[in-house]
Design goal:
The structure is a homodimer of 327-residue chains. Chain A has 327 residues and is of the alpha+beta class. The first copy, chain A, folds into two domains: 167 residues, 2-Layer Sandwich (Ribosomal Protein S5, domain 2), CATH 3.30.230.10; 141 residues, GHMP kinase, C-terminal domain (Alpha-Beta Plaits, 2-Layer Sandwich). In chain A, 38% of the residues lie in helices and 26% in strands. Chain A has eight helices and 14 strands. In chain A, strands 1, 4, 5, 6, 7, 8, 9 and 14 form an eight-stranded mixed beta sheet that branches. A four-stranded antiparallel beta sheet of chain A has the order 11-12-10-13. A two-stranded antiparallel sheet of chain A has the order 2-3. In chain A, strand 5 and strand 6 form a beta hairpin. In chain A, helix 1 crosses helix 2 and helix 5 runs antiparallel to helix 6. The radius of gyration of chain A is 19 Å and the shape is globular. The two termini of chain A are 21 Å apart. The interface between A and B is medium-sized, with 28 and 28 residues.
């Protein structure tokens, strides 16, 4: 195990869950209450470079060309502490991150962020982790990062311990021409972090135990639909699973919501388009942006309809993306 | 039993449920899956006059000064058929209704409507029903009408049969100075009728069985809070119960919602005001309007805040209203 003398750079793509992760069974280890399934996206990613240096007296974190204050750097420093512990090292690091995902707006910037950080920092410190180990490590940074190690459709097996909770590729080299169209209705920081939100849902929603059972069933069904290339069944399961996740926010105490006026507008539009024969299905995470699943052949039609209501620069067409790689 | 020779006019007020009714155990008899609790409002009501006349060859229904077409009159004619059956009569009626509630906008116009129709038509045909019987009869027209027979706080005991499902006054002569401020964000007809909506929720929401258990608990708790004049506990239970009802729409298959952009705006405002120390709590039904519970002493403050975001004519302050009466 040798510490790298040059910086190591990794790129990880974000992912959007079709079967959602919404709640932890173990806060510290970030073990989820349910297994989940996502699609890695090509168009939103994070590049992170790491170099451990003997002369440093603390970690220096640069994020989108800004040096983070100790408070803002805390979560990343904690993560580096884990990596140092694994490597039996006490060296500090320089971390340089460029995020090509809007931060904290429900587009899972922490997924690509912690996946890239896991890959770059572990290699920089001299650990030689395989993908399963990388997935477990990324999980400690952010639950959804667990899945960003792989491309295409990815399943995060919830497991029951640090060792048994990691992602596996479900279909990594995706030959199915489908897209995810993101409508960026609001790039502002969200009110309720997903971490805090899910904690409140687990603790107070009377629907939480039904949610856990539901996800188990949905996961089975969506895997069959994906295998069968049954777009409508996949889309319907994904949309309903997402809305049942958002029901956990409304039904929590205190009640809260990630919807805003434009989210409703997109959702209504998707319902209308579908009634009119255009196969498309939405999903939403812990932020107001809406992501729409659509087959490639129908993507132009969908975008044209969206452009009637939203500025073109708010509409991003993403295709399936690859797993982690070193640059 | 004598048929009245002059028209009989009854006035019934609408009611807003604090513990919601969302689902039928029996479609035909309109038996609910859960008991519910409401507040009758002074400011929204229906006046209905009925006269049964031997010379008529069909029912003539006038609604807000418009003669209804057979299709639009169908639900009312069905109700009159029930009344005729009870009275062993085959006479047709003239019905004249003026509604002081916006129709089908989540302000329970059918509650006051069928309560007034039950009272006026039963008396006009010569039946002498007591309030319990009136409540049962009104239920056959519209579930929420069951409660509009009484004033103040009213409990609808779900029962298990036509005979056992009716409302009882919980606190009829209300001495507690509280108001319900309705924000009429949209007076247009709603997309999904409450009747169809609840049917889909019962049949498809994975959260429905948890909802039924929850309502039983919430009902117990809110009755204690009302007895104790504990406004915050009452408001919190009501707001959470409403959002847990709306979770049943989001979690249904197909997913649907009664929220619109302005509903979210009002809900966010209420949350913000509460954070800033103003005790107020919202509730919502099968339409986009939002109703806010507030103590009388805080009502002016609330209205002032609402007026910063909504036109004054969209804000209606309602106090507790009386039960059914003959004019």
């Amino acid at each position: 195990m040798t510490i790298s003398k040059t910086k190591i750079t990794a790129r990880a793509h974000t992912n959007i869950a079709l079967i959602k992760y919404w709640g932890k069974a173990n806060q510290k280890l970030k073990l989820p209450t349910t297994s989940s399934l996502s699609l890695t996206l090509n168009d939103f990613y994070t590049d992170t470079s790491v170099l451990f240096k003997p002369e440093l007296t603390e970690d220096k974190i640069s994020f989108n060309n800004e040096i983070l204050s100790p408070i803002k750097a805390k979560r990343i420093v904690h993560f580096l502490d884990l990596v140092r512990k694994m490597a039996n090292s006490n060296l500090y690091a320089e971390v340089y991150t460029i995020n090509h995902v809007p931060t904290s707006a429900g587009l899972a910037s922490s997924a690509s962020g912690f996946a890239a950080l896991a890959a770059a920092s572990s290699k920089a410190i001299g650990l030689d982790l395989n993908k399963k180990e990388l997935s477990r490590l990324a999980r400690r940074g952010s639950g959804s990062a667990t899945r960003s190690i792989y491309g295409g459709f990815v399943e995060w097996k919830k497991g029951f311990s640090d060792k048994s909770s990691y992602a596996v590729p479900f279909e990594e080299q995706l030959t199915w021409p489908i897209n995810m169209v993101a409508v960026m209705v609001n790039k502002s920081e969200k009110q309720m972090s997903s971490s805090k939100g899910m904690q409140i849902s687990v603790a107070t929603s009377p629907y939480y135990s039904a949610w856990k059972k539901l996800c188990k069933k949905d996961l089975k069904k969506i895997k069959v639909a994906i295998k069968n290339r049954d777009f409508d069944t996949m889309g319907q399961i994904a949309e309903e699973n997402a809305m049942r996740m958002h029901s956990l926010t409304l039904s929590a105490s205190p009640d809260y919501s990630y919807f805003d006026a434009d989210s409703l507008k997109v959702m209504n539009l998707v319902h209308t388009l579908r009634k009119n024969g255009l196969a498309c299905y939405f999903t939403m995470d812990a932020g107001p942006n809406v992501k729409i699943l659509v087959e490639q052949k129908n993507t132009d039609k969908l975008v044209t309809e969206l452009q009637k209501q939203f500025a073109s620069d708010k509409i991003v067409v993403a295709s399936s993306g690859p797993g982690i790689k070193y640059l």
